[in-house]
Specification:
single chain, about 130 residues, alpha+beta, six-stranded mixed β-sheet, 4 helices, 6 strands, about 20% strand
Length: about 130
């Protein structure tokens, strides 16, 4: 089972709509400023919002992450984040849920709120 670690890497401690930046910090092991810079640089190249899937895919691919399809159980039901270790083990992944990005690192969901009961959409894992 994936555990939860409450952590806010926002330098000002703000709880705001910066989930994609916070998730990048956790999965890439970089500073908040560096993650934000990478997002803005890619957004300027492709003219999508900094939190868009296009920008996130471009940033993550620079670090060797690949997009994986939404995982499904044998009966077709969806996995929740807390069940994701059955799919990825203890690997590092940036996970999308409805309108949110979160980080899973070493069997732990790192975020400012516990989103482990949300259904996993696509996720990005380092190959």
């Amino acid at each position: 089972m994936i555990y939860y670690l409450e952590q806010n890497v926002n330098p000002k401690g703000r709880k705001t709509g910066d989930c994609s930046t916070r998730a990048l910090v956790s999965v890439l092991g970089i500073s908040y400023d560096e993650a934000l810079r990478l997002q803005y640089e890619e957004a300027l190249k492709c003219y999508y919002d900094t939190t868009s899937k296009q920008v996130m895919e471009r940033v993550l691919s620079k670090f060797g992450f690949v997009k994986m399809k939404q995982p499904r159980k044998y009966d077709g039901t969806k996995y929740t984040i807390k069940e994701l270790d059955r799919v990825i083990g203890h690997k590092t992944a940036l996970v999308t849920v409805a309108h949110h990005h979160t980080a899973v690192v070493n069997g732990c969901c790192i975020d400012i709120w516990d989103c482990r009961n949300k259904s996993v959409g696509n996720y990005y894992i380092k190959q």
